Amino acid sequence: MKQHLSLPEARRVALAAQGFARPRPDAPGTRQLNGAIARMGVLQIDSVNVFARSHYMPLFSRLGAYDTGDLDRLVLRHGPGGRPRRTGAYVEYLAHEATFLPIDDWPLWRFRMDAMRAKYGGAGSWYDENAATVDWVRDELAARGPLRPAQIESDAHRGRRGPWWDWDVVKRALELMWRFGEVAIAGRRGFERRYALAQDVVPAPLLDAQVPRDDAIRELLRRAARASGVATAADLADYHRIRDRRAVLAAVHELVDDGELAPVTVDGWTRGAAPLPAWVHRDAVLPRRIDAATLLTPFDPVVWFRERAERLFGFDYRIEIYTPAPRRRFGYYSLPVLVDDRIVGRVDLKADRPAATLRVQSAWWEAGVPAITAERVAVALREAAAWQGLAHISISTWGDATADLAFVMPDAARHDRPAVEPQPEPEAGLDVA
Questions:
Q1: What is the pTM of this model?
Q2: Tens digits of per-residue pLDDT, 159-182?
Q3: In whole angstroms, what separates CA 348 from the centre of its chain?
């Protein structure tokens, strides 16, 4: 690999590491899904379902249209007829934010589970002061196996609740126990989690395995480097949300000494007048071109670290679902649009399933995008609609790309700027340690 990269070269290295240099398979199946997840390492979860839930999107972006039921069987532990399975190759944990990750990686996260327990579970903590709730929830899971929160709530209302009972308290107990590694997610019904004691989900050898903190961080940094292709220390740290800067830099230096990483400079990556330190993974490749035209979720590893997205693509992104509607610049939940090695714009999509219509609620170009790009984006929109089983497309009048898209898609309907979307309730959470 070169010791100096132009910015377009760095983009191609990064996209190749994420699988975008590979030809799309004709009929993506389980093998291709597993391969794509392995390259990314983790698959971030998000509850917003205006177009498609976020964990479905990165695989569509890389592989094209696939059967989401195949992914459900892998990560949601759906068996025949949608019935839950107790075993699976994937489990959920805070490997970035909430993510699906290979169950074999469970021991790598013990350091984070321990840090969570130290931060939120010590003497005088909420967890300590609500020990009766925690013990009751633990007993319920031990006696009854994997349960959805609604099942625990129903049981409480059948007369088992005590004077300490409060549903929000029990829900928080479950979430803390999950963060501490005492509870694991045994799959989902629809999108509702099924909680279980960790020993009922994670094989005993993985539960018992001990990986020292420094070793775990070094391994996670190695994986982040492989998945990033080229990256700064901040990029590598953010991939798995590792906050300990000294541990990150120590791991990076060890990986350099081992020959896994090599220093590199990238045009435009500077700190003041000096080059910003960056590294390239030894398995990274520099393709001559990236041939892609697809949509990304805001939680795709390509763009989830906003500082990196701006440095690589000049792309400034903020999620606006919690922004008051009059102050939104681009829409409720806009998706970045990747064409070749550039992010060329963003589209706010809504799957109107009763009308079998993909609604392009807004569409915007990034600066300097040539007009011919509209043809490529139109192909991506048609592909997205077909993947979601939507027979029609309607394009709004909001955004500087809507007229261009309507021109190259004469069969698409038009609609006015959409009415205000309801704001979702933010999910309760705790900081990643």
A1: 0.90
A2: 444 444 455 778 889 999 999 999
A3: 18
State phi, psi for 26 to the nearest 5 degrees: -65, -40
Dihedral angle computed from the Cα positions of residues 233, 237, 243 and 248, in that order, rounded to the nearest 10 degrees? -60
- The model's pLDDT over 188-208, given as tens digits with 9 standing for 90+, comes to 887 888 999 999 999 999 999
> How does DSSP classify residue 84?
B
Question: Which amino acid, one-letter code, is at 170?
Answer: V
In sequence order, which residues have a C-beta less than 8 Å from that of residue 120 and are 6 or more positions away?
A: 126, 127, 176, 179, 180, 430
| Phi-psi category of residue 356: left, alpha or beta, with phi > 0 → left and psi -120 to 50 → alpha | left
Q: From CA 129, how far away is CA 123, in angstroms rounded?
A: 8
The structure tokens listed for 240 are: 């798995």
Residue 408: count of CB within 10 angstroms of its CB:
16
Collapse the DSSP code of 88 into the 3-class scheme (helix H, G, I; strand E, B; otherwise coil) and give the result. Answer: coil
Report the distance separating Cα 63 and Cα 58, nearest Å.
8
With helix as H, strand as E and coil as C, how does 58-77 read? HHHHHHCCCCHHHHHHHHCC
The pLDDT value recorded for residue 84 is 55
Q: What angle is formed at CA 344 by the lines to CA 56 and CA 71, rounded to 5 degrees?
A: 10
Say if residue 254's pLDDT is above 80.
Answer: yes
**Sign of the torsion formed by the C-alpha atoms of 132, 134, 138 and 140:** positive
DSSP state of 426: P
The span from the CA of 19 to the CA of 292, in Å, is 11
